[in-house]
Each structure stands twice: as structure tokens, then as C-alpha cells.
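Quick one: C-alpha cells for this chain, please?
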Amino acid sequence: MCNVRIPSIVDHGLSLLGQATGGVALFASGIMLAAYKIEIDLIALSVALLKNIVQPALVLVGLLSLGYGAPIVPEAVLTTAIPVMPIVIVLAVQYHVLETRSSSALFLSVVGSMFTIGIFIALTQ
């Protein structure tokens, strides 16, 4: 953006790091989900519903009310419709705060996203 060239060795190193992060996040999520029992309670369910339904719906309504269209609206809505990030569990475990609840929220969010992402794809087309 600033017309600054990054050396190719740095660019290549960052590219490799960027490609590995998805797999590492999935691995960490699996370990955390295996370590903590999934307990579906009102708070975990609320977090999943807020992340999977309310947040993308607000982005959709907000962007449409501001007059935006494709490709901005579908990209923004689908970006916000992705499930809760694994970093939530990592931070919960690191600081010993609500580990089971954050694992439950991640699980519910990932399972729910199989349906909600499809719905938001249909709504934004």
C-alpha cells in the first residue's frame, strides 16, 4: 500500500508462516476440545448464536442500509459468519478462565456454522 518492497526472503518466510497457521489452529482446537468436556449451557449457546447469527446479520443489515452491494456485502458477511476462533480456547486455558465454556462455545459455533454459513451465502446472492 505504501509502495514499499519487502525482500523476497521475508515474503517467502511470512507466506510459509501464513499457510501453517490454519492447520496449527485446527490442531490446537482439536486438542482443546478433546481435553475439556462439552457442556451445553445458556452462555455457551448464546456465544455461538451471537457469533454465528447475530454478528453476520448485523453486518448484512448495516451494509445494505448504507447502500453497499456485491462484492463487499457477501465478502463481509461471510467473513463475520465464520465460527469462533480457536484463540479463545488457547487464551482461556492459558489464564485458567472458563476453559470448559469456551470449548463448548467453539464446538457449538463450528457445528452451527455448517448451517448458518449456507444460509448467509443464500441471503447474500
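The CA atoms of residues 12 and 18 lie 10 Å apart.
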